[in-house]
Design brief:
The protein is built from eleven helices and six strands. The chain has 226 residues and is α+β, with helices and mostly antiparallel strands. Helix 1 runs antiparallel to helix 2 and helix 3 packs across helix 7. InterPro entries: WH_DNA-bd_sf. This is DUF559 domain-containing protein.
């Protein structure tokens, strides 16, 4: 997978999430997606997974004190929920006092109680031993393979939308998806919005109220639809 392809998909991934956020949630993503997070995606996540589906950067959770916590990434597939953290030695070990150490452990327990599995990767491993991170991540996700398999139907539906758009040779509308799959309008809209979030579709036409009514293919998508 070429570096240019990754950077193109990464840029689309971030912009899709930024476009759907406002206030601090948007500002946090614009400011917070730094070198370590981008390196994890480039050297570990994308080589293993090949896409950013179901991945949410700078994911906000309100903790037991009513304060916002932003995980580096959340990976959400129905009942299976992960928080991925990339931790440098300095900020998370050398520079941490006792109070912050207790708060971090309590936060992880709280997230586990909410149903998240919190998984931390060392920045040094991400930067210098990404193949180890890939191996460990593959082993971890393999334990959930049976639980993740129902999502394959959703992925197949999304790829079918891409093929439909290609066959239509024009921008796609929710009504096209509705009629093709024999589903209701709301489900068709959700399917198109999911593809937009993943960077596969680009909105090109909106109503006066700002609602997207047409989408076109993002550049290069057809090269990666089986």
């Amino acid at each position: 997978m070429s570096s240019s392809h990754f950077h193109e998909k990464h840029h689309a991934f971030l912009n899709a999430h930024i476009s759907q956020r406002s206030g601090e949630r948007k500002g946090r993503l614009e400011r917070g997606h730094q070198h370590a997070e981008a390196l994890f995606l480039e050297q570990v996540w994308f080589p293993l997974i090949g896409h950013f589906e179901h991945l949410h950067p700078e994911y906000e959770v309100i903790d037991w004190r009513g304060r916002s916590y932003f995980g580096d990434f959340a990976y959400l597939l129905g009942d299976v929920k992960f928080i991925w953290e990339i931790k440098g030695f300095g900020p998370h070990v050398q520079d941490m006092d006792r109070k912050r150490y207790c708060e971090e452990l309590n936060r992880e327990i709280f997230l586990q109680a909410l149903g998240f599995r919190v998984v931390s990767f060392a920045y040094d491993d991400v930067a210098h031993r990404p193949e180890l991170c890939i191996t460990l991540l593959r082993m971890l996700l393999s334990r959930y393979q049976s639980a993740l398999s129902p999502t394959n139907r959703a992925i197949l539906a999304e790829k079918e939308v891409i093929r439909l758009l290609h066959q239509l040779a024009r921008p796609i509308r929710p009504v096209d998806v509705k009629e093709h799959f024999a589903i209701n309008h709301r489900t068709a809209v959700r399917l198109l919005q999911s593809l937009r979030t993943k960077g596969w579709l680009t909105p090109i036409s909106r109503t006066a109220g700002g609602r997207v009514v047409q989408y076109e293919l993002a550049h290069g998508v057809m090269d990666f639809v089986d």
